[in-house]
Description:
4-stranded antiparallel β-sheet; Structural Genomics Hypothetical 15.5 Kd Protein In mrcA-pckA Intergenic Region, Chain A; Pseudouridine synthase; 4 helices
Amino acid sequence: MKEQIILLSDANGNRIDSWLAKKLDGYSRTYIQKLIDDNLVLVDGRTVKSNYKLKAGNEVCITIPEPVKLDVIPENIELDIIYEDDSIIIINKPRGMVVHPAHGNYSGTLVNALLNHCGESLSDINGVIRPGIVHRLDKDTTGIMVVAKNNEVHKKLSHNLKSRNVKKIYVALVKGIIRESTGKINLPIGRHPTDRKKMSVNLEKGKDAISYFKVLERFSNATYVELMIKT
């Protein structure tokens, strides 16, 4: 069933896609941009582009379409389940597993495994290839993922992540010796200039990135650290 949301703009010069991403809990900016491209977002009754600058008093009408039937195939892949109830399932995602289907990875993903385990009991806010997925981890990262089983819980989890009410703590083995016991890293991160599959410090085009570290153990040519990502 379609859902229609009407908001009165309190913005003054803000892009409509970023403004809506802050106003609509549970909906990513990418999803909102797709709605705009599909002419499902109207400002004062007119279609706009994602970079449209809102003015105070604009009436913004958003139509959320009915979810499309999933085309992703359930696969019998073993899951390391930490906790599960009727609202969420918490998974320890292993290194080497991609979170959702994408170019070059159409099977063997966490989503394929979740569809087999949960059936249709997953949120559909993020579209047909990312049911239940509220946040993500890189393919080569092992870690805890919280998956939503319905849209109400998805929105609440997304709001808490967006509001930074959730702490993300990682452990990592890094090359070289870090002399400081604790510290703060504040450098912008962007695409690597020559290897587009990697991220690196990018002073010109990078986004703000702040992390705090604590040394857990030092080895001959590496350091084992705990990391807390702020942005």
